[in-house]
Specification:
Elements lengths: L1 H11 L18 H16 L3 E4 L5 E5 L6 E7 L12 H16 L8 E6 L12 H6 L5 H6 L8 H7 L11 H5 L1 E9 L4 H5 L3 E7 L2 E9 L3 E2 L12 H18 L2 E10 L5 E2 L2 E9 L3 H21 L3 E10 L2 E2 L2 H10 L5 E4 L4 H5 L5 E6 L15 H20 L1
Parallel strand pairs: 3-4, 3-5, 5-15, 6-14
Antiparallel strand pairs: 1-2, 2-4, 6-13, 6-15, 7-11, 7-12, 8-10, 9-11
Helix pairs in contact: 1-3, 3-13, 9-10
The protein binds glyoxylic acid and manganese (II) ion (2 copies).
One manganese (II) ion (MN) binds next to loops.
Length: 401
């Protein structure tokens, strides 16, 4: 199995990698995304799987006749800006290899099995995460989705059309959804829990609730040399206070808060900014904590904006409720795997979206440093192979039980 993992991994590795930074730039409906999709289709077809798209650009590879009650596994191939190689692709590669393992061992599934490559999980291009699974399940309104824009002002609808997909078809896909009997997503761990307890594989218990909020500070553009400090309405100042307040509030609340994306307009060194748009990502173990944390950050932002004569607006762009994976399935998989650690995660996943609709579980593969959403993200090959074996065991159990 080592050579197959190596083969698939090395085919994927160059696609979308920025050779200067080593980080990945795999964004939805771009040329690179199409290359990744073509790779998936070709690899799956080579295993005798039938490949199709659903209405929302999610790619499905079927072993057996597509139909209700199927066992589905997979993840995503897109990345965050400057992402690592493992977040997403490890789940897709492991899914293909696990199915190949079942085929090679002559396992005769009693239910159909599918591998899925979900569209736009990270939301790097259009701002909302898990677009493919949120549309599939009807959580995201297709009209809103079509109107989402990227940094260049291209709408999702136009990006899909340019890539040969049909944006008019977007929306809850009952046919595709009804086929999923159970979904299992394998993912690299985005923390060090498994490393700390000395285990290669774990099973997810929960996903922290999380969301994205756009913070807009509107000031007055002016000359950086001639405008007296007292006369300025500089939106950078309340924004800076807000970044510090978010850290402080998150620390006290027991959650996390991050500003990882900022747009300063017009963006000149010698120009006092007129507008700062910044995106707050906040998460915590429970919804009340996230909500009160964001309220406190918004309060601090408003106060700082008032102090500097700047306008402030907060807009919720996405919200993902807490996910508690079904304990019966979770415990069953822990048993199939001979007793492995069970852990929650602060990262979002398509499995979290599907969990509200179908029985869903997640397997995690040890990450020796815990680093993720970074070129430094990694997992040892031996652990990746253990992940494939664990997934194969789980799939075999599910398709034959
Ligand atoms: C996706 O990986 C997220 O947690 O935002
Ligand atoms: Mn991610
Ligand atoms: Mn992921």
């Amino acid at each position: 199995m080592t050579s197959s993992f190596h083969d698939l991994w090395s085919e994927l590795e160059p696609l979308g990698r920025n050779d200067r930074t080593g980080g990945y730039e795999r964004y939805a409906w771009t040329e690179v995304d199409l290359q990744l999709r073509a790779w998936f289709a070709e690899r799956a077809a080579g295993m005798g799987l039938s490949v199709e798209y659903d209405r929302n650009g999610n790619q499905w590879a079927w072993w057996g006749t597509p139909g209700p009650g199927a066992v589905v596994t997979g993840s995503h191939l897109d990345s965050v800006p400057g992402g690592g190689a493992f977040d997403g692709p490890l789940g897709v590669v492991s899914a293909l290899l696990a199915v190949a393992d079942l085929q090679a061992r002559g396992v005769r599934p009693g239910r159909s099995l599918a591998v899925v490559n979900f569209a736009d999980e990270e939301g790097a291009r259009f701002g909302i995460a898990c677009i493919g699974s949120q549309l599939l399940t009807g959580v995201l309104d297709p009209e809103r989705a079509r109107r989402l824009t990227d940094a260049d002002g291209t709408t999702l609808a136009d990006a899909m059309s340019a890539a040969g997909a049909d944006p008019a078809a977007l929306g809850r896909d009952v046919r595709a959804l009804d086929r999923i009997g159970v979904f299992v997503e394998l993912h690299v761990e985005q923390g060090v829990h498994l490393n700390d307890v000395g285990a290669a594989i774990g099973v997810a218990s929960a996903i922290w609730p999380h969301g994205r909020w756009r913070c807009s500070f509107h000031g007055e553009g002016n000359h950086a040399g001639t405008t007296r400090l007292a006369d300025r309405r500089d939106p950078m100042l309340p924004f800076a206070s807000t970044v510090l307040a978010a850290r402080d509030v998150a620390e006290r609340a027991g959650g996390v808060a991050t500003f990882g994306k900022v747009l300063v307009r017009p963006g000149g060194t010698n120009v006092i900014a007129s507008v700062v748009d910044a995106w707050l990502d906040s998460r915590a173990p429970d919804e009340t904590t996230v909500r009160s944390l964001v309220d406190a950050v918004a309060g601090a932002a408003q106060e700082a904006a008032d102090r500097h004569g700047v306008g402030f607006r907060l807009e919720e762009e996405s919200w993902s409720p807490v996910v508690n994976f079904r304990s019966a399935l979770r415990d069953h998989l822990v048993g199939v795997l001979g007793g492995v650690p069970v852990l929650p995660t602060g990262a979002g996943h398509d499995a979290g979206v599907l969990a509200a609709h179908v029985p869903t579980a997640m397997l995690f593969v040890r990450n020796p440093t815990g680093v993720s959403h970074s070129p430094a993200e990694r997992a040892e090959v031996a652990d990746c192979l253990a992940g494939v074996q664990a997934l194969a065991a789980v799939l075999e159990d599910l398709v034959t039980s």
